[in-house]
Amino acid sequence: MDAGKIACACQINHINSFNCMKNNILNESKCFVVLLLLMGCFFSACDESIELAKLDETSYEVPDEVIGYITNNGGDRKKSFIDFRDKGAEEIYVGLTAEAPEDITVSFRYEPSLLEVYNSTYETEYPLFPASAVTIPGQVTIGKGSKASGKTKVEFETAETLEVGKTYVIPVKAELVSGNVRLSETESGFLIFIDDLSKIPTAEKPTGIKIISCMEVNDTNPLNNLCFTLAGSGKPLIDIVILFSANINYNNETGRVFVYNNPNVQHLLDNREKYIKPLQDRGMQVVLGILGNHDRSGVANLGDEAARQFARELKAVCDAYRLDGVFFDDEYSAYQNPPPPGFVTPSNAAAARLCYETKKAMPNKLVTVYVYSRTSSLPAVDGQNPGTFIDYAIHDYGGSYDLSGNYPGLPRSGMALYSQEYARGYTTSETNLKRLRDGGYGAHMIFAMDPFRGNFNSTQKKSMERIARVLFDDELVYDGKPYKKDW
Questions:
Q1: Residue 432: what are its φ and ψ, rounded to 5°?
Q2: 322, 96, 372, 286: which is closest to 193 by C-alpha?
Q3: Burial of 231 (0-12, 13-18, 19+ CB in 10 A)
Q4: Cα separation of 60 and 394, whole Å?
Q5: Helix H or strand E encompassing 119
Q6: What's the rounded Cα separation, in Å, for the pair 279 and 239?
Q7: From CA 247, how far away is CA 292, in angstroms rounded?
Q8: Does a cis peptide bond (omega within 30 degrees of 0) precede residue 363?
Q9: How far apart are CA 264 and CA 217, in angstroms?
C-alpha cells in the first residue's frame, strides 16, 4: 500500500488511554490490557533475552499454602469471551501458585451464585446460559510436583430460549476433592461470557469466496460495509473488514514496542458497540491492521522472544475489543542496519516468526498478510509451513499469480487475487474475476471503499456489481443509506 492511502495513519508515538467504553465486559478487558502493560509483560525491544514478567501472585498467597485457580488456554483467569454457532467449548484447567505437595484432585460444577456476585458488583444484568445446554467436565488431577492439571472442556450448545444479541454467562466453580491446597473464593470461579450467533445469518456465500474490505478508517466509517448485499441470497457482499490501520511503534522512554492506535482507530475500538458489533452481527469478521509507523520497529525485525511477547499483546487487544484477528503490512518502518539492540535484521523469517507466534497466541483468530515487502513470502517456522499459521495472503493491487510458492501449505482458498484500490480508481476486469473463481482461489480485496467519494457511482459501485455478478452469480443491492464519518 502507498503513502497516499495512509496519509493519517502515522501519528505521534504515545499510548491512548483505554476509556469511554460503555460495555462492562470491555471496560474490564481494557483494564486488563493496561494492567498487563503496567506490570511489564508486554515485551521490551531493548533486550532480546528478556523474560516474561510474572504476574504478581502475592495477593493470592499466604505462608505455607498453595493456592489453586481456574484458567483457560489463553491464560485468562476468572472470565473469557466466546462467540459460537450451534455448539462450542472452552478449555480450562486448574493451575497452582506452587508445585503440588501431593496429588490433587479438583471437580467442577455449574454455580449460578458466581454470576449473581458479578452482576451485583458491576451493576450488570447478564443472564445465565441454560444449565441444560451445558456439559460441565468432571474431575482433573494435578500430580505431585506439578503446577497445572490436564486440560478439560466446558461444552455447550444453542437453545431455543437464547435471544439474539444477548450475552449469556456460564458460571463454573472448582471444588477441592482431595489434596492439600486451597481454592480461594476469588480464584475458584470462572465465568464464560457467550454470544450465540446461531440465529444470525452468516456472510458465507455459495461459492465460498471471501470479499475483504480494507477500510481507510481515518476517512471512512466502516459501517458502510453494511450497505451492500446480494439480491438473491440477502447475504452481505463483504465477509472480512480490515480496520486500516493501527501501528507497531517503539517507545523510546520505556524501550518497548507496542500497538499504537491513532485517534480514529481508537474511537472505533472504544465504541465497538456502534461501529464493530453491527458488522459482526451480520456475519462479517473485523480484523485490525498492523502497519509500521516510521520508527525502528516493524513486523519484520522482532527477535523470537520479542515476537512472542508482541503476539501476546495483539491477543490482549483482540480479546479486549472482541476483534477477529490481525492483518500484517510491512510498510513505513524505518528499519536500521545494523539493527539496534533488541531487534534483528529485517527479514521474511522474522515476519514469519511474528505471524507464527500470533497464531499460536490466538489460534481461533485470523492471521492475514499483505503480499508485499517482507511479508510477500514466508518460510517455515519451527518446522511448520506458513499455510498452517496464516489464513489469508492478500495480493498487492493487480497481483494474480498463484501464491503456493510464497506460502507453502496455504490452500488456494486462502489466496486473495486481483486486489482493487478504489481511492485511485484501480479496478479489475470481469475476465480477471472469472479467472479467480475458475482457478479455485478463495478471496478478493477492495481497498478504501467510500460511498461519499466522487467516483462512487462511476467506479466503486460498478466494480462491486461485477464482483456480485461474477463471483456469486448474483446482483448487488446498494441501500442508498451510507454512513458518514461522525467522529
A1: -65, -40
A2: 322
A3: exposed
A4: 46
A5: helix 113-122
A6: 9
A7: 6
A8: no
A9: 7
With a CB cutoff of 8 Å and minimum separation 6, the contacts of 197 are: 83, 84, 85, 283
Is 331 considered catalytic here? yes
Q: How far apart are CA 216 and CA 331, in angstroms?
A: 15
189-196 and 79-84 strand pairing: parallel
The 3 state secondary structure assigned to 209-260 is CEEEEEEECCCCCHHHHHHEEECCCCCECCCEEEEEEEEEEEECCCCEEEEE
Out of 187, 216, 331, 421, pick the active-site residue. Answer: 331
> Residue 266 carries which side chain, given as an amino acid letter?
Q
- Going by C-alpha positions, the residue among 467, 474, 13 that lies closest to residue 212 is 467
> What is the rounded CA–CA span in Å between residue 292 and residue 312?
18
Residue 8 has which C-alpha cell?
493519517
Determine how β-strand 443-447 pairs with β-strand 392-395: unpaired
Q: Which residues pair with 328 in a beta bridge?
A: 290, 369
Q: HEC states along 340-355?
A: CCCECCCCHHHHHHHH
Compute the half-sphere exposure of residue 51: CA atoms within 13 Å on the CB side of its CA: 3
How far apart, in whole angstroms, are the C-alpha atoms of residue 261 and residue 268?
A: 10
Helix, strand, or coil (residue 273): helix
Cell numbers that stand for 254 in this block: 520505556
C-alpha 149/C-alpha 100 separation (Å) is 10
pLDDT in tens, the chain (487 residues): 653 444 333 333 333 333 333 344 444 444 444 444 433 333 333 333 333 333 344 444 444 689 999 999 877 888 888 888 899 999 999 999 999 999 999 999 999 999 999 999 888 899 999 999 999 999 999 999 999 999 999 999 999 999 987 889 999 999 999 999 999 777 789 999 998 888 777 899 999 999 999 999 999 999 999 999 999 999 999 999 999 999 999 988 888 899 999 999 999 999 999 999 999 989 999 999 999 999 999 999 999 999 999 999 999 999 999 999 999 999 999 999 999 988 999 999 999 999 999 999 998 899 999 999 999 999 999 999 999 999 999 999 999 999 999 999 999 999 999 999 999 999 999 999 999 999 999 999 999 999 999 999 999 999 999 999 999 999 999 999 999 999 9
Q: How far apart are CA 262 and CA 246, in angstroms?
A: 7
Instruction: Report the run of H or E that residue 68 belongs to, with start and end.
Output: strand 67-72
319 alpha carbon, distance to own chain's centre: 7
E runs forming strands in 97-231: 104-110, 134-135, 139-142, 152-157, 167-178, 182-183, 189-196, 210-216, 228-230
